[in-house]
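Attaching the record inline, Q. Sequence:
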Amino acid sequence: MEEKLKILVVEDDEVDRVIVRLAMTEAGMRMELDEVKDGNHGFSALINNHYDCVFLDYHLRNQDCLTLIHKINSSGIKVPLIILINSGNEAIAEDCIQAGATQYFIKSTLSSATIAQMLRSAIRIHHTKMQLDLVNQQLQESREQLSFQEQELTAQQEQIQLQNLELLATSRLKSLFLATISHELRTPMNAIIGFSQILLRPKFGLLTNQQMEMVEKIFSNGKDLLVKINEIIEFSQLEAGKLELNPKTLDLSEVVNNTVTEIRSLAEAKNLSLLVKTNLENKLVFNDAARLRQILIHLLTNAVKFTESGSICVEIKESNKNQVTITVQDTGIGIASRDFQNIFAAFHQVDQGLSRKYSGIGLGLAIINSLVRIMGGEISIESQLGIGSMFKIELPRKIKLVGDLDDVVFLPHQNHFYSVHTPHKASLKKESGVSSQESESISRGFTPATD
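Structure, as predicted:
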């Protein structure tokens, strides 16, 4: 069944009101019709009742049609308005449409068919407009909410930036404090170690066995403490970006073997086998020998410390002609996967308790990670609890220092790397015995092929 419509007719001409009423009746529409003679009564009816549509005469005696439309709109009343005009008044009707009316209708064309069609069309247009207004309102609210969220986000970003600056300042203060206090501690610690060494010399004087034991403990613990102090100083330098590499051409296998020799006594003291595997066609790399040794010392001492039985294996091989890989694998206690994400964090230790079994300040792996990154490499870990751990370091065969070295070249016939500084390319021939042809090639930017 068709919905019953409630219609208001605002028309001061009795004949026109009758025509509208008859046309609607003949159209067979289910409706409730209210009729008023002027704009004031029409506005009052709209205030007190809900109507599905309003037929409004364009020319009212006591009130202009446009004025009434504006009044209706200002009051917030939402209703389809059909303006009834006489032929020739289309311009006035267009003004009414611009003011907010839905449609207009020429009285002389009024019939049951046209009025039903016009009524349904006006209601449909009005509903569409209301939906559009609702969507626009929701869109505006969304924009306002988005703008508010953007302001909040901007404020949060500013707050985060401020906090980051504060954290950076705090970190710098911390690094400065660590570096200062470590330097202050290192001087007296060197004195303690030095005097201990003097006391341990036979020519200094005879000490009882108990005194000798005590001095040896002072000497041993002093060296351990000095190692920790040096670690803090190096970490502070790394954090401050003040640690520089001193690269040169070196035999990687020689560096590894010499370092393993230094650690071998520690492994043998725990009955651990310490193996070295070398799989390099070209053993030469361009790197800092002292820093490579430092990386290996940290990894090997950790492996010995956390391995009670079994073996430790160091392997060096070529990933490709431009990259070498160093792995240190042990059969130690292993590391849980949940700790992988923090394993290279400064001062982090898996066992953080004061009564922990293994000593250390948790800077070794942090220093290794920083050094490897400075070299342009990567370090990764594979480990299982109770089975062991493997640290894998991938390094470029030729490291390049940003802002220092413009190029590093390898001369096959001399089996040697050379670092070439932009202002000093002309001196390469003199310093290294490079041929005129090679020197000219380098100065033009050509790099001789590596083997």
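The first strand starts at residue 5 and ends at 10. Confidence is low (pLDDT under 50) at residues 352-356, 404-451.

More tomorrow.
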